[in-house]
Specification:
The complex is a heterodimer of chains A (489) and B (305). By secondary structure, chain A is α+β, with helices and mostly antiparallel strands. Chain A folds into 2 domains: 100 residues, Beta Polymerase, domain 2 (2-Layer Sandwich); 319 residues, Cytochrome-c3 Hydrogenase, chain B (Orthogonal Bundle), CATH 1.10.645.10. Chain A is built from 17 helices and 16 strands. In chain A, helix 5 runs antiparallel to helix 6 and helix 6 runs antiparallel to helix 7. The two termini of chain A are 36 Å apart. Chain B is 71% helix and 0% strand. The longest helix of chain B is centred in the middle third of the chain and has 32 residues. Classes of the chains: A alpha+beta (489), B mainly alpha (305). The interface between A and B is medium-sized, with 32 and 32 residues.
């Protein structure tokens, strides 16, 4: 029997096909394969046993490698993988927190979401070293999280980020009462991406084929979400460096995009648009024409403002060489999505695991000259806004061909397949959102695992601010704009 | 008597109107309608009426610091020619009393910030102290040069630059205006040195020092900060308004100059990003170097023929 099976995303896998091996062997193989982890989670396997599933992504070929290991009731530890592959560090911490199986010699075995009162902070000693603690309650309307800076004067040596304040037990809630409403509430700024990931998984388990029209509408909505948030973040970056004009213009432009979404589905953030089996709202020809007109204006405004900012020396002096994450570091710690791309690691679920439309609409990956700093993240956002705009135009154009298709497919009330698993990927604006759903023999969902891109990327922020000024932290933070609730689940 | 009253009226209203005008200018550049230019005054009245909360970790220093802040700027204002073009107290070396009275107020607010024990406020205090220490020598260099040039050891000397130095005087005035304008941006905690509109504690300088103050104390601090900007602007006004104008015209010119300065501050804030904290020194050193230029010009004029 093979040690790993190669699977595709959004397809049903029978649990019985998943190979298993001893944890030591699994560990050796993971290190040998040297692929990017996107899933590393346990599941109660009865009689006190825990089965550990590992999913690795082969981005070059669009394959997922899947394997597993079983821990008996007395196996309470194993040699950590993080020592050799640092990208596993969050995954192993989470696994330890959920199942109490200790990864030995893990260099950074701290709580992920629970036990904040017992969090062992990294300590630095020295006459000149001082600590600055920020949060969990912040100035401004943002989510809670605690940051602790070890500084020497104005220079940050190390930042420690303690999260978990938003932990709601989403994965358990998904078992009891899975729904689109719940899925899109997990992380409010990626409502559409989360909903798409959830719907794809459920559709694969129920054997539903959704119509071309619904697929295209989902795709357009996902790009609109990306556009809206990126433009909002460009404005927020401008606001953080006190560049007023940028903040004002991008703020106004973002509103145009989300108001278009409002005209499509009655929610500015696209809530309620996507549903299992398709989409809830059809786009009328008139709505599409209006949207295209708005997007022309959006494109022009963003172009103009970004170019004004890139020509302003005071702006560039703030953005350039601030919060740099090198490509080696980004790879090593396993950054994903936008943060990885701005450090030169070109992983993008839309292109690495493409659906049929990427070919049909002739959408190609465009190169980006990454420098890993705030400037790079600023420019990448601009690039992605422009790409999303052109994608949306192509999608709207294609949509005309499928005018008469239904928006919701048949079979929504089917039962789940039994003993199956689906790995569903969606590229939200932050990066890959992974939903893994498993069913049991009674056709009930038995495990729901979610991985938000923030889960990988928070540590990237901690690395980015090293040797930067304390006062540049808010700027670095904004340039990543990571999610607290996505991490805390 | 009426003229003395006028000084008080200026101190009471002009700082708030200047802040309102700065906000209005920023709103204009951002394409917004903006709040009324009287808003800062309404805010002041609102804060005065409010109760205040005092942290349990603080001592008496924290309580008296706001009073020091306002008392010192009011006292310092007596040495500066305001709308009427004449200071209330004219003594030789009044500039030293002026600078160190302001210094005392600042010292008290630094100590009060550290008194709260908050790591933010300590950070803000260290930044403020650091920047002030570079501003001070530049300011003295400038004023002393001008005094030596005019042979007049009061702030009145500022309005005699051109008549004492002729064409050199125009150059000196231009440089001196720039120096004082930068000083005002630093002391008034405006962009590009500080960002009065930010909510990010880690990037603040002045705002973070008064995080723990509320109600009346906060109102006093904001008024004191406004007066400080007004005083430095008044020095600029001294230099650019001819000193022999009729009283009424002088007052109008003064208000006009205050308006122009506010619009200039608002425009600077809209057109540029804030400087990175570690580069603020370079910005303040511009002020020092221009002061040196003024000094060289004065020396050239006096000794070079």
């Amino acid at each position: 029997m093979a040690k790993w099976i190669k699977v595709k995303n959004n397809t049903k896998i029978n649990l019985s096909d998943i190979p298993g091996m001893g944890i030591d062997e699994l560990r050796r193989q993971i290190i040998e394969l040297a692929k990017r982890p996107i899933g590393f989670f346990g599941k109660d396997w009865g009689f006190g046993c825990v089965r550990l599933f590992v999913i690795l992504a082969d981005d070059a070929n669009g394959d997922l490698y899947l394997s597993s290991a079983i821990f008996g009731p007395n196996d309470k530890s194993y040699e950590s993988i993080t020592q050799d592959v640092p990208a596993f560090h969050m995954f192993e911490r989470e696994f330890y927190e959920q199942f109490g199986i200790e990864p030995l010699h893990h260099p950074w075995l701290k709580p992920v979401r629970l036990n904040q009162d017992k969090y062992p902070f990294f300590e630095m000693e020295g006459e000149e070293v001082h600590q600055v603690a920020v949060g969990p309650i912040h100035a401004g309307v943002i989510e809670p999280g605690h940051f602790r800076f070890m500084c020497n004067g104005e220079t940050v040596y190390h930042l420690e980020i303690m999260l978990g304040y938003q932990h709601r037990g989403v994965e358990d809630m998904m078992l009891k009462n899975p729904s689109n409403q719940l899925a899109e509430s997990i992380n409010g700024d990626s409502a559409i991406a989360y909903n798409i990931a959830y719907s794809q998984a459920i559709e694969a388990l129920k054997g539903i084929e959704i119509s071309n029209k619904a697929q295209l509408i989902r795709k357009a909505a996902l790009e609109m979400e990306r556009m809206a948030i990126h433009i909002g973040d460009l404005g927020a970056i401008a606001g953080d460096i006190a560049y007023l004009m940028g903040a004002a213009v991008f703020g106004a432009t973002r509103t145009l995009v989300i108001n278009t979404m409002l005209s499509f589905c009655g929610s500015r953030f696209g809530r309620g648009l996507v549903t299992v089996g398709g989409v809830n709202y059809d786009l009328s020809e008139a709505a599409i024409q209006d949207a295209l007109k708005t997007f022309d204006k959006v494109g022009k405004d963003v172009d103009r403002m970004v170019n004004t900012m890139l020509k302003n020396s005071t702006v560039m002096s703030r953005l350039e060489k601030t919060g740099t994450v090198s490509m080696e570091r980004a790879k090593e710690i396993g950054l994903v999505g936008m943060a990885a791309r701005s450090s030169g690691v070109d992983i993008d679920t839309r292109f690495d695991f493409p659906d049929k439309w990427m070919g049909e609409l002739d959408i190609k990956r465009k190169p980006f000259k990454a420098s890993g700093d705030v400037n790079s993240r600023f420019k990448l956002r601009y690039k992605e806004v422009k790409e999303s705009l052109s994608m949306i135009r192509k999608i709207f154009d294609k949509l005309k061909e499928y005018k008469d298709e239904p928006i919701i497919a048949e079979g929504v009330n089917n039962n789940y397949s039994s003993d199956a698993m689906v790995i569903s990927l969606a590229e939200g604006w932050r990066g890959e959102i992974v939903h893994i759903v498993m069913t049991d023999i009674n056709r009930k969902i038995s495990r729901y695992k979610i991985k938000d891109p923030s889960f990988n990327n928070w540590y990237g922020l901690a690395l980015a601010v090293r040797n930067n000024g304390v006062s540049d932290f808010p700027l670095c933070n904004k340039s990543f704009n990571l999610s607290y609730s996505g991490n805390d689940l | 008597m009426i003229l003395k009253m006028l000084n008080l009226i200026v101190l009471l209203f002009v700082p708030f109107l200047m802040m309102g005008l700065i906000k209005k200018t920023k709103a204009f550049w951002a394409g917004r309608k903006g709040v009324s230019i009287f808003q800062p005054m309404y805010d002041f009245v609102k804060l005065i009426k409010k109760d205040f909360v005092i942290s349990k970790t603080t001592s008496v220093v924290f309580n008296i610091a706001p009073l020091f802040a306002i008392a010192t700027v009011l006292f310092a204002s007596m040495f500066v020619p305001l709308a009427t073009g004449k200071a209330l107290i004219i003594i030789p070396a009044g500039v030293i009393v002026f600078a160190y009275t302001l210094g005392l107020g600042k010292f008290m607010s630094l100590v009060a910030a550290m008194d709260t024990g908050s790591s933010f406020e300590g950070m803000g205090a260290s930044r403020e102290a650091c920047f002030t220490s570079i501003v001070e020598p530049a300011f003295f260099l400038l004023i002393a040069s001008v005094m030596v040039l005019t042979g007049n050891y009061t702030f009145g000397s500022l309005s005699h630059i051109i008549e004492s130095a002729g064409s050199y005087g125009i150059l000196i005035t231009i440089f001196a205006v720039i120096v004082l304008f930068i000083m005002m941006l630093v002391e008034g905690s405006r962009v590009p040195v500080d960002d009065p509109a930010t909510h990010l504690e880690l990037t603040m300088i002045h705002e973070v020092m008064i995080l723990d103050n509320s109600g009346c104390d906060l109102a006093l601090y904001s008024w004191a900060n406004g007066i400080k900007m007004l005083l430095i602007s008044s020095l600029i006004a001294c230099m650019v308004i001819p000193h022999n104008l009729p009283m009424l015209l002088h007052i109008l010119c003064y208000l006009l100059v205050m308006g122009i300065i506010s619009i200039a501050v608002g425009t600077v804030e809209s057109g540029m990003a804030r400087i990175r904290m570690s580069h603020v020194f370079e910005f303040i050193f511009v002020m020092s170097s221009l002061s040196l230029v003024v000094m060289s010009l004065v020396m050239a004029k006096m000794f070079g023929g």
